[in-house]
Each structure stands twice: as structure tokens, then as C-alpha cells.
Amino acid sequence: MEPAELISRAGGASKLSRALGMKTHSAVLKWKAIPVCHLIRIEQAYSIPREELRPDLFRGVTVVRPEGEGAR
After folding, report:
1. Which of 4, 28, 44, 45 has most Cβ atoms within 10 angstroms of its Cβ?
2. Which of 40, 42, 14 is CA-nearest to residue 28?
3. Residues near 31 by Cβ (< 8 Å), separated by ≥ 6?
4. Average pLDDT along the chain, 72 residues, taken 10 residues at a time
5. Which CATH superfamily is domain 3-58 in?
């Protein structure tokens, strides 16, 4: 997923940065790819699977989540 699509789905860069505990939204606007360090928090906050956020990292990998955890 491109950062611009995530920003749109999150309701804007400010909302996304707040959800991630970032001080400003300007860093989000500079992303060329969604940083790995934010994948799990984004997945939890927006129910977007990490494999969808960064398919380049999860190609050919099966992510197994405990029942009741993760994206819905």
C-alpha cells in the first residue's frame, strides 16, 4: 500500500500521526514507504493487515495470528 492511500484511509496525516503517537504529521507526509516500525500499530488501529500495508515484505510469507488478535 502506498503511504498516500494509508493517509487517506486514516482520515488524514494528522489523524494517522496522532494514532501512531508522533509529534507532527509532517514526517508521515515524507514517507516513501510505510515504516516497518509502525506496521503493527497501524494494523491494530485501522484493521489493515500488515501484509497489505507492506506486501513487499510479506510476499510468500504466511502471517499466523492468535485467535482474536490482529486485523479483522
Report:
1. 28
2. 14
3. 3
4. 97 97 95 96 94 91 73 52
5. lambda repressor-like DNA-binding domains (1.10.260.40)
